[in-house]
Design goal:
The chain is of the alpha/beta class. The chain has twelve helices and ten strands. The termini are far apart.
Amino acid sequence: MNRAVLQSRWCRFPLFILLLLAAAMGSGCKKEGPYPNHEIEIVIPFAPGEPADIAARIIQPKLSELLGVPVGLVNKPGGGGALGTFAVAKAPPDGYQVLATSSSVFTVLPATASNLSYSLADFTPLGSYLSDWSVIAVAVESPWKNLEQFVEYAKKNPGKLNYGSPGAGTVSHFAMEQLKQFYKLEIEHVPFSGAVQVKEALLTGQLEVAAAGLATLAPLFQSGELRPLVTTAEDWLPKYPDIPTMYEKGISDFPMRIGMGLFVSAGTAKEISERLSGALATIMQDPAVYAAADAAGLDVDYRNPDASGKVLGIEAVVIRAAAEEFQMKN
């Protein structure tokens, strides 16, 4: 083989390598397929056992089925829901991180906490789907058989009682503060990192009274371990018609709903948010979801994205005014 032939072959070899590299780079730069094409992460900014967590677990299998990809659940509690909410606000707007939260992170928390690092404008609502009510309760061994007896004791013993909530800035915290203001009670607030810890503290005698979501406390009402005193619902609850409402007692001018909704970060492409919101709308027509919600003590309360955002805006204004009246801003 002569020298000229060898040189010719070696000159063509780098060109061959370059063509291979270009092909590899080209395949790596291809656009992803239609959304979704890999696992979606649902971020719940509360601890397991909270109403938002219970609600998300009801729809999670259906979402995975409809979207055709795995849907994982990640609890990121802290700051009354602020920690997990902020994480999704700053997530890439690609639809692969979805916030499943209660309305309090957009209504009560902004009205009571200073220097929040997010706002509703950082999100695109996908719709609300279930709701819960907060309940103020005591242990069954408690001497207080009803709200009137509890209030009478608290008035006669200022500063001697404490109460627990799932955290500062939650609907349950707000409800108990309303009750304190209305009756002029001196009761110390003990914030916990979730409703599960609250109910355990109540059962073990660490707390005299607590406020938490009905979905969390309902099993203990049914077992007779806890006694409900009052709820934030607008009307009597069908399963618990003996629980009076703060609304009927004149304690609150408005019902305090714990609404559950899904959100993605602002800037998410319209076709992606519509794919997710459409899946949620379909899920909320499933009788199995109704049955699961009823068993968990939650109400089906579906609203489309536009209605969901408008309701949150209205609730935020009303709650902010009440928080200012009660001087609840931290």
